[in-house]
Design goal:
The protein starts with a helix and ends with a helix. The protein is about 80% helix and about 0% strand. It is rod-shaped. It has a domain of about 80 residues. It is mostly helical. The chain contains 4 helices and no strands.
Amino acid sequence: MANELFPPPEKGKKQEGTDYSEKITHLNTRIKLLEERNGTLHKKNQITDDRFREVSKDAVREIRDLSEDLLAIKSTLHEMQAELALLRSEMKFLARQPELKEIETYINLWQPQNFVTRQELEEVKK
């Protein structure tokens, strides 16, 4: 690379000091341009890093919220399972349809709507 920047003088021509000063000026310009680009890239990188941190914090917060929601859902599910178990145990004591049919048969046979009430008996006694 040094040969590209400072090629050997050609035979028969004299190298003047201005050629070297022009090359040094050109190199200084290129260095300044590269430093500016490096600075710009550094700023962009910093912005990207800051944005990444913000997104990371948001993601962690969202995961924490989802975990809390999941725990609440699990708790509710356990409560519902307990209630369902209680309902199952209480339903064992309910009358089944054949039993209800039997009761209906007795009610129709006895016809309780024709029974006399105590108040009616008291009126008849008087």
